[in-house]
Amino acid sequence: MKKKLNHFLDLDQINTKTIKALLASGHKLKKSKISKKYLHKKILAMIFEKPSTRTRVSFEIGMKQLYGEVITLDQNDTQLGRGESIEDTIKVISKYVDVIMYRGSSQDRLDEIVCASDVPIINGLTDKSHPCQIMADLMTIEEKYKSLDGLNIVWVGDGNNVCNSWIHASKHFNFNLKISCPKDFFPKDEEIKGGNNIQTFDDPLKAVKNADVVVTDTWVSMGIEDEKEKL
């Protein structure tokens, strides 16, 4: 029987106590300048099917500050680009490393990786969600306001993967999340219904009234550059 692993996939799949403990640890490590060898001899494999600057740098620097090691792979470095099944590739990689971070497009592919892996998986980004970015955003807001309770946080833009992760985060905190998107580009109804204290607005000016924080994302996400209808 396969042992139960603590993956980091979507914020709505993690309990509130764990989310808050992770944020508290993040604040503590940041203030301490990270001097202890928390991850000594631990190895993180990063699999990139989408280009990255900030995700790659932050994960690599973070692991090294914790005295861990990093190996970075893209499709050109592995058999994934040559037709090998994701199951076989992940089974091999997970025998060598302690944790895997995956950054790609397909949520289904992430699910396949989770099923095949013998080590914890971190979701570095899929088309559905971007939980690590929102954890960093939550830390930043806590540094500014000390507490998320009662804040008016407003999303303006495409109802994309980052927006979905804000919805997931709303389950753990008592902030008000207001979402304003172009017509036909709101998050799916099932995503919105899964959150707490959420309002949607067609008019962005109404949405940002009395806002404490306004959040947006790049207007042209990777992979939609040629989708003229969406633009």
Folded structure, characterized:
With 231 residues, this protein is α/β, with parallel strands linked by helices. Among the domains are: 39-125, Aspartate/ornithine carbamoyltransferase (Rossmann fold); 147-215, Rossmann fold, CATH 3.40.50.1370. It is built from eight helices and eight strands; from the N terminus they run αβαβαβαβαβαβαβαβ. The chain has helices spanning 16-32, 54-65, 86-93, 107-116, 131-145, 161-169, 189-193, 204-207, and strands at 43-48, 69-74, 99-103, 121-125, 152-156, 176-180, 198-201, 213-215. It has a four-stranded parallel sheet, with helices on both faces. A four-stranded parallel sheet has the order 7-6-5-8. Helix 3 (86-93) crosses helix 4 (107-116). The longest helix is centred in the N-terminal third of the chain and has 17 residues, at 16-32. The chain is globular, with a radius of gyration of 18 Å. The N and C termini lie far apart (48 Å). The mean pLDDT is 91.
Strand and helix layout:
Elements: H1 16-32, E1 43-48, H2 54-65, E2 69-74, H3 86-93, E3 99-103, H4 107-116, E4 121-125, H5 131-145, E5 152-156, H6 161-169, E6 176-180, H7 189-193, E7 198-201, H8 204-207, E8 213-215
Parallel strand pairs: 1-2, 1-3, 3-4, 5-6, 5-8, 6-7
